[in-house]
What we know:
Blueprint lengths: L1 H26 L10 H21 L3 H6 L3 H10 L5 E14 L2 E14 L2 E14 L4 E7 L8
Antiparallel strand pairs: 1-2, 2-3, 3-4
Amino acid sequence: MLKRSILPFLRTPLLLAVSFLFFLTACGGDKEAKKVSPESLLAQEAFELAETLKNAYVEKDRARLEVHSTESGYRELIGNMKSFDSAELSFTPTWVEIQDSTVHLTVSWKGTWAMKGKYTEERGMAVFVFDGKPLKLVQVQRANPFRQPE
């Protein structure tokens, strides 16, 4: 009977020792950092640019929108902008497609716009087309969040 009651206590230290050895061997090895791919850097730049454009739109900063857009992209943006008192907009990137220097960033968005005490909520899916070095907005496809409120 005594042997049975000691057996579980012997298993725990043995399991801990094996786990510790496994942890040491898994975490050891080459300390060299992996290099970030050019595609990953381009995707990260696209994410940051989408956030910059969103913030400029919410703040009604047309100059910043113009700086981060091509001429045709800027015309499309301001041509579709509706008047609002305030806005809250959130982007969730869902897909990035890179072809040469062109980036198609698909985002799911949600927004709330206030106009004369009336609130409008919308959501949708947009594809931002960026190109150039540094990236600039060329076009917004699908449900353009900058056209709201409709």
